[in-house]
Amino acid sequence: MPPGELVYVGDESGVVSVSVTDYDEREYRVRVSATMEECVLRKGAPGVTWINIDGLHEVAQIEKLGACFGLHPLTVEDILNTEQRPKVDINEDYVYIVFNMLTYDEQAKEIDSEQVSIVLGENYVITFQERKGDIFDAVRDRLKTGKGSVRRSGADYLAYCLIDSVVDNYFKVLEGIGEDIEEVEDDLMANPDKQTVQSIHFLKRETIYLRKSVWPLREIIGKLERGETPLVRAETTVYLRDVYDHTVQVIDTVETYRDLISGMIDIHLSTVSNRMNEVMKVLTIFAAIFIPLTFIAGVYGMNFDTSVSPLNMPELNSRYGYPAVLAVMFTIGAGMLLVFKKKKWL
Amino acid sequence: MPPGELVYVGDESGVVSVSVTDYDEREYRVRVSATMEECVLRKGAPGVTWINIDGLHEVAQIEKLGACFGLHPLTVEDILNTEQRPKVDINEDYVYIVFNMLTYDEQAKEIDSEQVSIVLGENYVITFQERKGDIFDAVRDRLKTGKGSVRRSGADYLAYCLIDSVVDNYFKVLEGIGEDIEEVEDDLMANPDKQTVQSIHFLKRETIYLRKSVWPLREIIGKLERGETPLVRAETTVYLRDVYDHTVQVIDTVETYRDLISGMIDIHLSTVSNRMNEVMKVLTIFAAIFIPLTFIAGVYGMNFDTSVSPLNMPELNSRYGYPAVLAVMFTIGAGMLLVFKKKKWL
Amino acid sequence: MPPGELVYVGDESGVVSVSVTDYDEREYRVRVSATMEECVLRKGAPGVTWINIDGLHEVAQIEKLGACFGLHPLTVEDILNTEQRPKVDINEDYVYIVFNMLTYDEQAKEIDSEQVSIVLGENYVITFQERKGDIFDAVRDRLKTGKGSVRRSGADYLAYCLIDSVVDNYFKVLEGIGEDIEEVEDDLMANPDKQTVQSIHFLKRETIYLRKSVWPLREIIGKLERGETPLVRAETTVYLRDVYDHTVQVIDTVETYRDLISGMIDIHLSTVSNRMNEVMKVLTIFAAIFIPLTFIAGVYGMNFDTSVSPLNMPELNSRYGYPAVLAVMFTIGAGMLLVFKKKKWL
Amino acid sequence: MPPGELVYVGDESGVVSVSVTDYDEREYRVRVSATMEECVLRKGAPGVTWINIDGLHEVAQIEKLGACFGLHPLTVEDILNTEQRPKVDINEDYVYIVFNMLTYDEQAKEIDSEQVSIVLGENYVITFQERKGDIFDAVRDRLKTGKGSVRRSGADYLAYCLIDSVVDNYFKVLEGIGEDIEEVEDDLMANPDKQTVQSIHFLKRETIYLRKSVWPLREIIGKLERGETPLVRAETTVYLRDVYDHTVQVIDTVETYRDLISGMIDIHLSTVSNRMNEVMKVLTIFAAIFIPLTFIAGVYGMNFDTSVSPLNMPELNSRYGYPAVLAVMFTIGAGMLLVFKKKKWL
Amino acid sequence: MPPGELVYVGDESGVVSVSVTDYDEREYRVRVSATMEECVLRKGAPGVTWINIDGLHEVAQIEKLGACFGLHPLTVEDILNTEQRPKVDINEDYVYIVFNMLTYDEQAKEIDSEQVSIVLGENYVITFQERKGDIFDAVRDRLKTGKGSVRRSGADYLAYCLIDSVVDNYFKVLEGIGEDIEEVEDDLMANPDKQTVQSIHFLKRETIYLRKSVWPLREIIGKLERGETPLVRAETTVYLRDVYDHTVQVIDTVETYRDLISGMIDIHLSTVSNRMNEVMKVLTIFAAIFIPLTFIAGVYGMNFDTSVSPLNMPELNSRYGYPAVLAVMFTIGAGMLLVFKKKKWL
Question: Is the pTM above the cut of 0.80?
Fold first, then answer.
């Protein structure tokens, strides 16, 4: 495929929904279900414009928008290729940020992932999501009510708010996984079985996936914060530093989880070995006690003819043969038990 | 949540207690249970002021204090969010340091953690703790008695003393964990069981947690020491270098503990396998000796009619049948024992 | 061997095939089965020339070409030594890039590797492949149809297209391995056996090999992109940045695979141990129930003479001896079952 | 504790012994059992003065010496705190180096450690040891006999000689541990048991400890060698480079040992598993051969009344019953042996 | 030992053999068995002089040579101490390079190592080997025949040729080890036993050793190549870059081998566990089938007196008692087999 060839590789269901939000310190306007034309008109208008696009499968529309806002063909290609590694591209006219929005499905114990692209320009922000979601709703509310400094600040502050709301959501994902880890840990100690091994493997995969999403984010926000682009103003930097710290905290926690999980399978093996040891001890105790006794019973069950010779099993005709044999058996059994008690097997 | 929105996430019990300490080379004054207003009055007063706040749940008060001392809303947010990663923020007017104060509960064999925030300004230090504690008492005593150079030095030296007392306490935590490691090591060799596995897993978690608290500290103190802020004077740097060395030593010890613990579970597995081997040998020796003998006894317990044919179990009617069989059995048993002796299983 | 001594170490079968492609914005000419002389003539001609050589065993020809285009003897040696580590050599007149073209053989579940050398000069590109392949066909098509900007751009853009097509193919290899990993994971949980261990070991080897090919690539493209040579123009840099991102993504995925595979063998061991535990439990349950019962049966199979003394096995002559013994046996058996039920072995 | 508070934490037994050595190219004088006053007098005297103090528990004396030679209170604190991490402090007037002197106790297979502090000034060296030792004797001899360039060189060369003699001793420690590793390796292959696991764990601890002592040393000597202080003259640098190389070699060897030891416990586990496999095979062979045979014997030991019906155990009254059963038993036994032979269990 | 004290620690057998080779573009002269005096005479003579010394135990001779060519005493010490870590010392008048020449003994499956020192001066190269070897023969031949550019180039090019021939030999060592790894891998899958564990451990040790020799080499050649000394001319740099690439390739392969070997012991453990599982299944199947049957046979072997009461073993006198019991036994046995078949144990 030539570079810049536009193909959308993700899910094609659902309707593409476009919303345009304009605001400045005094005014705030939203157009839901806007057309691409309306979006294009906003370019260069005063105030800040936030264009949000849910659903990426109308490739031609997105190409048009890209052309109008002067996006490089490779940027548009990256917006559509939803298996992108998180990254930031700093161009002259705009900054392109792509990363994953994660949500944790408590039922399936799975991380759902969706690619989010943010294009930050002089006075506009364009966001691209694969599906309609509600993570940006809090930002929308703040814009509407004018709470916080969001209406007084520029497009860079809006971009920060959007990134921040995604990163904040990571903590929820971490919490969900943390709870699962604790559940598996309890299982591990109480009742380790095949299911536990599967859960550990599953958790490991989730953490590997999470790590892949989170590590690049640190670099991305670091780049924005270091002031490599004039599109991010100095007063926004302190906020980005805050998200950066959150990202580092997320990474720290992911690494902590990895450490915990990596030891679990060894602990499972140790616990299972311990149990097998217990099982083996039970078997050995039964065998060691009854096998010699059964042998003795077998001996006196032999049919040698006692009448042929007094050497042939004289015990059988002895007066106290049976009680004597029982006593011997009891002594052997009790002796064995004592030996095992001393060995601490019982 | 918008950035700078103030929510306290920690424990809400207990009373908020505020104390204000003013001192210079000649004077020393403490007001326990001070009001926020008294704190605010101290701003810009001569000498050094140390405001210590135990308990963070009166959010409005802390916001007021923050506003008065010119703290950035994000700083106040971080003071209240007690699940912060340790960090230092160097601002123009003040330095904000947040890290964990750890204590080791010998009984529960657990690390207790509490977040401590230190705001270092031109001539004041504000400390925020979640609960009333006694780690800063030594510093208070030194201030009172004027021992050491603490009264002659500025606010930065006071901040150093406070950090130093927290880091010194880490050594106690390390000592506690070190003793637990030795206990588990003894168990591991003498009597490895399920409990040992749990203890190892528990120790591992503690060390992971400790590590998360300690690693960032190195960076924090390194930043302060490198003179990135004029609020830390050159003469204090040599003391910070000393705390820095202590932090490195703490990290070294934590890593040593990690190394030790990471090998333990393998050793447990090896010891358990060794033991199972012993159990299996006992079982096999009993089985190998008595199963053939029982078979022989079984053969001569068969009821073939010796009167029908001389081929049918002539041994039973033989004069020396029984002693011969016993002799054979004894020989087989003794032979087996010799074989196992040679194999070094006995 | 002296440096610069030319020896081809690879496969010697097949015909050497040389094709020369000239193009500028207006014209496009291909000569298949060109002679070396024709290649040489193109040096310094206007437009861009792409010489592609499939098969490296006519050493003299390649030496001649090298001499004509001013390649350093060590470069020619590297072209012929097909066990080269991927690298880039930036010389004054040309850039020499060598790396591996990988394809995944779904049947044999094996990675096939072929060394590709690219020499990028002022207005020419020379590519050397070991065998005829079809990975460059897409680039050929684009040149022919003039699609994309390839015809308007220089030799560096052509080199980029060639590198890009190889890196794109890596994703297919990754996909193939990813599918194999999933297959083995299913096996691991459902039915772990000796075959599974072999598959895991095999996958591990593949990933190690892949890693060896991919890691150096990052450095190579990074060097080209950083503008260390005037042969790569600034406008091509943004495209190389794109390939660079792809390479990082490939490396990320390889590392993810490594992480997954490295845990698999532990999981296999844990699952096998779990199963052995099950087997042992079955054995122990059978043994613990029937061994005591068989012993009791053995006791009443002893032949003590009941007529000699009333102490000798009076049970045998008792009216309810047999049912009583059966009842005792049943009680013991049922008791054992209950014990094992309580221990959760059943 | 306030910084600079002097407390000695080590062993308090033994006598403090102070020796003062003065030398220049022509003269050499030693005073054994010198008083602190004599030491102090040497400050600023011509020639080089080496004050060696064995035993640190007379804190007041050491404080006095420190004050006289202008040591920072934190330096004196570090001299007395014998659980210091190895480090170098470069001050204006002196360089403070602290590190561990290790000796290997062949009997107890233990590393003995003692902290050594070296203070290097303009024309003096002060060394502090916890106990009287003999590692510096070689340096004393060289000073006395004037062998080598030691008498012609300055205090920095003396400091180098002292560091060098300590580092040289590390090689002896490594040799001791290397021999222990080989011993354990032999055990591991020949006769792995519980003792072997303990030895491996012990070796691991020793190496972890060694590592902690050795790694910082590299940094220390590196700092001295890079000429960060005028107290180390350029002509001494080449010698420090040599010690630096030795330190790197020590670190390399320690890492090699770590690598070797880290694999040992896995090998132990594998060997034990192999052995258990052997034990299990023996058990299974015995069980598989004799259990069916014993069953057959049991069948013909049943007491069904052959006179009631010809269906009841007609074999017992058959002429060839017994030999036939024996033949069947023999065939089954031999068949089993063949099967196991084919399975390569025998 | 004082620094610069000369002691040879290696093998003392064999004769010291000295050869001196002079050459320039036109002339080429060799003196085998030269005396040290002849060597010394060559200093400062026109053309390039290569002095090769096989055998290091005539310490005085080497000291003399060192003194004449102005080598630092520490350099001479390093030449004689044959347990040196590979390194390069760049001095004003000469460059001292020391590294290991490795050969692989196919029989013993062992790496033989010999220390090689190269002293590169303005127009001379001195090489020191412990034993007579043939690795430098190819260079000698090239000098003699004047093939390649070696005769036209300076002493630095000669040094490069010598280093190159040693590094080329590393590939042979790698090949040998690679073949051993494949052998062990085959064993691992087909027939894992105690021997396999030993082989893996042995391979691990070899790789650790190899690594220790190879890693420093990269740094050494890197230093030479970066032009830190005027003794290495710019035109030689491109050749050193080539050796550098080879070294990186060697390191890559060593790391790959390490990765492969590190997983082997786990695979061995998994395979052994798998096998034990098989053994256990065989045992359990035999036990589970025959133990209940033997118990039934035991029951009907009891000697309860059927004449006393009709409750006492009426089965024995029943007409179809025996066939019924046999049928029951057969049913139980067949049932067990079916159960195990369903469990996939058969």
Answer: yes
